Amino acid sequence: MTALRFAERLRDVVGDAEVLLSDIWGVVHNGLAAFPDACQALHSFRQQGGTVILITNAPRPADSVQRQLRKLKVADDIYDAIVSSGDLTRHFVADHPGQKMFWIGPERDSSIYRGLSPVLAPLEQADYIVCTGLFDDETESAENYRAMLLQARERRLTLVCANPDIVVERGDRLIYCAGAVAELYLELGGEVIFYGKPHRPIYERAIALASERRGHTVDLEDVLAIGDSVRTDLAGAQGFGIDCLFITRGIHSEEFEGIDQLDPASVRELFGHPPRALMRELRW
User: What range does the domain containing 240 cover?
Assistant: First the structure.
């Protein structure tokens, strides 16, 4: 294993890739503002004939994600399609009509159920749980849900996690996500179904969409993933068999502060199997 250096430009590492599967939060924006250089980089890749699929663990449908991007001044022309863990979760709910669901998450995630008419119920009456996030991610952590999850485990309820992220960057803060609650439920012995990175279904959907856009089945060797999370973006890409460009400005920024090059031992400690390249922030 060799040392791993930081690349300056996407065009220097993209190689012959036809398709980029780009994370959104932490790569394209930080929840409060878009990153203009990142947006320009994705736009430039598309101008050269590439296809960009935004792949996100947002617990909302793709059209809701698009509306958020527009509010943050992210132009529609930097990507070809959006695949969200919210859409995959919607399929689960649609496939279980009439069953009672207990929902853990903030009201702002309600768009995940648009057009589905789920049967909402208290925990003691529910057939399964959907977790889109914490009720109040500004003040809570997964530990606030321990008693509730113990009760759910006693009832042998399946928890469907609509966002496997543990934390996400909001401005200069890290906020807990649904993945933190789901991982605690696993530790307590509960059953969890994860939709989103690093799990295969979201990548399968992204590749299918990319193949539709390009008019042929895309070879995984021609795909490059971009993300800022070791646990979701890097692990998911590698588990699916595609290379990853790792962006260090996101949730792992403190670990890379002041570092210009990683020696082999540090690469193994941080990544296990290394990404194709490191970049502090996405730029063309």
Answer: 4-86+198-279
